[in-house]
Write a structure and sequence with these properties.
By secondary structure, the protein is α+β, with helices and mostly antiparallel strands. It has one domain: tt1808, chain A (Alpha-Beta Complex). It contains four helices and 14 strands. The chain has helices at about 45-50, 75-90, 150-155, 155-165, and strands at about 10, 20-25, 30, 60, 65, 95-100, 105-110, 110-115, 120, 135, 140-145, 170-175, 180-185, 190-195. It is globular and about 50 Å long. The relative contact order is 0.16. The model is unreliable at about 1-25 (pLDDT under 50).
Length: about 220
């Protein structure tokens, strides 16, 4: 990926023992310190939902309001479209649940509101969908990596998803044409591996997902 040095640093900041992975050289989320509202650390969904539409996207993690990265590139959007298309076929058309794509709010906790690229909510978790947003951890969350959001997806959101009980997390890297799958265990996420090419994904949430990884990329 552009601007990422392959030097993984293990951080101890994760709550409940969840290990965080940082990739040196990437851009962190930008705190929106100048946006009128509660003090940083005290933002909630209600204060977030009351923000005027200024053409920007925001997310909240642990009560801190962040400005989302600028509009993603074409290859990012194409990967999101392809992923959601194949998941729609595998999840919605088979009657197993629902698929959502950004921008759509997911309130992981009162002080953490994010907009994942793709979300899968199985029927057994259907009560978490309340039209305006999903409240609680979805069954599957997918983030498509861009140079501006790589650290956020591998640190802040990685830990937020684990704390919220998101059972499965995919990190998709279009520039490398890979997908890494994380499964939630007792001590946080465990990686099932990085998949590419003609490999298929060993998803626990979408079993028998027979799409080759290369089909997610233009």
């Amino acid at each position: 990926m552009c601007g990422i040095v392959e030097n993984v640093v293990e951080s101890k900041r994760a709550k409940k023992g969840h290990e965080m992975k940082t990739y040196e050289g990437t851009t962190m989320l930008t705190p929106a310190d100048n946006v009128p509202g509660p003090e940083q650390g005290h933002w909630t969904y209600d204060s977030y939902a009351a923000l005027p539409d200024d053409g920007k996207r925001y997310e909240i993690i642990d009560g801190v309001l962040y400005m989302a990265p600028p509009s993603p590139s074409g290859w990012h959007q194409k990967s999101v479209i392809r992923l959601s298309h194949y998941l729609f076929d595998a999840v919605e058309l088979t009657g197993h649940g629902q698929v959502f794509v950004a921008p759509f709010d997911v309130e992981l906790s009162p002080g953490t509101v994010v907009q994942p690229d793709v979300v899968v909510l199985l029927n057994k978790s259907g009560e978490k969908y309340v039209v305006s947003r999903i409240i609680g951890g979805p069954d599957l969350v997918i983030e498509v990596i861009s140079p501006g959001n790589a650290t956020a997806d591998r640190i802040e959101k990685y830990n937020a998803y684990a704390r919220a009980g998101v059972k499965e997390y995919w990190i998709v890297e279009p520039m490398r044409r890979t997908v890494e799958i994380f499964i939630l265990g007792e001590d946080g996420y465990n990686s099932l591996g990085i998949f590419s090419g003609e490999q298929t994904l060993p998803s626990m949430i979408v079993p028998d997902f027979s799409v080759h990884v290369e089909q997610f990329f233009a």
